[in-house]
Amino acid sequence: MKKEVILATKGLSKYFLEPVKFKVLDDVSFEVMKGEFLTIVGKSGSGKSTLLYCLSTMDTDYEGELLISNQRITGQKADTLASIRNEKIGFVFQFHYLLPEFSCLKNVMIPALKLGEHSYEEIEEKAYEKLNILGLADQALKDASKLSGGQQQRVAIARALINEPDIIMGDEPTGNLDSKNTAIVFDIFQQIAQDYGQTIIAVTHDNDFAKASHRTIEMADGKIISHQKIFE
Amino acid sequence: MRLKVNYDIAFTHILTRKKQTLVAAMGVTVGIALYIFSNSIVSGVSSYTKLNMFKTIPHIRIHKEDEISKSLIATDSTTFNLISNPKITTTSKTIINPYGLIDQLKKQPYVLNAAPQVNVDLFYSSGKSQLKGMASGIDVQAADAMFNITSTMLAGNLENLSSDLNGIVIGRGIAEKLNLRMGDNLSIISSLGVSKVLKVIGVFATDNRATDDSKSYIHLATAQQLIGGNPTSVTDIYVKLSNPDSSGVYAPRLQQLTQYKVEDWQIENADQLAQSKLTGTMTPLISFSIMLVASFGIYNIINMTITQKMNDIAILKANGFKGKDIIKIFLTEAFIMGAFGTLLGVSIGAILVYIAKGIYVGPPVGYFPVRFDASIFISGIFFGLFVSLGAGYFPARKAAKIDPVDIFRK
Ligand SMILES: Nc1ncnc2c1ncn2[C@@H]1O[C@H](COP(=O)(O)OP(=O)(O)O)[C@@H](O)[C@H]1O
Ligand SMILES: [Mg+2]
């Protein structure tokens, strides 16, 4: 089966004007395949997060072009981008960003409720299913703020998965976790890519994590300096 | 039916911060209660003032204006200037064919009633004391329907005047100054020199000092005798309108029916009305200030919520919530606070008005002049909700503009 491109950048460049003008991303071009588990590594300050935010459609202030599922993202309206994120992209950050007043279940459900493609009951069932995959079915009805850090991060992953997005993006998703929880998150990511054909793009500085992914992009000073391809 | 996710989030925010919600709502409650109470007082005082005015003055008065005599010889610039001596003519002040005009007036859809009067300037005298004043010869039923004189009667029965050519109903001030009691005789001398001795059959008090000190009511026929007229002589026609506030519109229309002078109460009482117009313009200003202060609570709480929930807003936006969804969430919260505060404010306002209505402040006012006016309550509700939404909108718009990337970078 021929692999299809899910995300592509063409000559992506970005400047920061404050405190002094400098090029944080310098002509970044690459493609990500459907079902690929891609990691982005590089020294602190090399522009990994900045790149990920451009890919996420949240940062639109760049030069060059971004395509997701062959659709041109660059230049789209904010509301269109919001809908694209809702439907096609799941996010996991270093911090979990769960809504503290809501139960874990409700936190997971919210993006699906926003999407509005299924009934409340169906969404509820699906959210349980996702929590179950992450080993949290028994925590579903607890307030998100009552869980441990590792558990919260797993709820955040369940939330990223609820709309079955084409791409899951993570900015140091294991950055705050101990080795045991890191291993759990890593296993889940691999499983997602293999079993469901979803694409993962994760920024990390954990070498073990990077090594086990399909491909690693290394960045320095806003440029890609190496593609270590495993996944073909 | 489940709540849409935006409303679900808004309600959860409200329910998890009941105390702040209550504090914000209280601001609106106090504002709306004050708004309703103060406007009810203004409305009550203004309608009391008008009601008081209409005890003695008609909405429209039609009478023959004083004429200045004209020089008999025409003068223009080519001839000599003549010395002439213009003054008020002494021709009769009665209206020709008054009943024909009254019938015509009554046919107008905006006229409730029209009544003839014969007003006589005269002196009241009792023993050596004399008092200047005016007697109104009235058609008792028509005049009572117009001014509700019966409600001002302290003693006697106005009804008796309709069959008593020698009776007189006097103002309280006259009774006091001339030391008159029911059944006493009172001599009157009209400005034409006609005199009569009448019997006091009633005393009234309008609480308008000038009126009570000078005015009396007598039989129409008696008045006609005093001005040396005949049984159809009428000096004034008083008109009652269905809507006295629109007298400015109707007076010119009535003027087209007659060559006599049509007087609009609003023009005749411009001084007094100017005062109430001033309060009329001050009240909305005061109300607006009250509401501005009241809405500050909501503004503050929504602003605070947004500052505390930057992370939540960022992740919602990352997950596909649009700017307008964020606005909806916080506007809903402001609306809930505002609606709750308004409801409570309207209830407290109503209770305050009810209590005030029962307070007796003594004569001449009687009960506290405060008025239950549905339009004040309705405008209060709209005002409360509008101001709350306004107070929520500005912080909500700010929240909608939060750039999630800025938050995630921290
Ligand atoms: N909002 C900003 N304004 C100015 N400079 C920024 C801003 N955000 C990041 N930077 C700078 O851009 C560079 C790249 O940052 P970042 O993408 O966060 O790097 P990484 O994630 O690889 O550590 C760094 O030098 C950082 O200081
Ligand atoms: Mg980073």
UniProtKB/TrEMBL annotation, chain A:
Source domain of life: Bacteria
Alphabetized CDD domains for the sequence: ABC_MJ0796_LolCDE_FtsE
Q: Where does the ABC transporter domain lie?
A: 7-232
Q: Which PROSITE patterns match?
A: ABC_TRANSPORTER_1, ABC_TRANSPORTER_2
Q: Which GO terms describe its molecular function?
A: ATP binding
* Alphabetical list of InterPro entries matching this protein: AAA+_ATPase, ABC_transporter-like_ATP-bd, ABC_transporter-like_CS, MacB-like_ATP-bd, P-loop_NTPase
Pfam hit, one: ABC_tran
Which keywords describe this protein according to UniProt? ATP-binding, Nucleotide-binding, Translocase, Transport
Q: Which family does the UniProt entry place this protein in?
A: Belongs to the ABC transporter superfamily.
What is the designated name of this protein?
ABC transporter ATP-binding protein
Taxonomy of origin reads: Bacteria, Pseudomonadati, Bacteroidota, Cytophagia, Cytophagales
TrEMBL record, chain B:
- Residue ranges occupied by any MacB-like periplasmic core domain in the UniProt entry: 21-248
> Which spans are transmembrane here?
21-38, 282-302, 334-356, 376-394
Pfam families recorded for this chain?
Answer: FtsX, MacB_PCD
Q: Which InterPro entries match?
A: ABC3_permease_C, Lipoprotein-release_system, MacB_PCD
Q: Which residues form a coiled coil?
A: none
Mode of membrane association: Multi-pass membrane protein
Return the similarity comment.
Answer: Belongs to the ABC-4 integral membrane protein family. LolC/E subfamily.
This one is known as ABC transporter permease
Give the lineage: Bacteria, Pseudomonadati, Bacteroidota, Cytophagia, Cytophagales
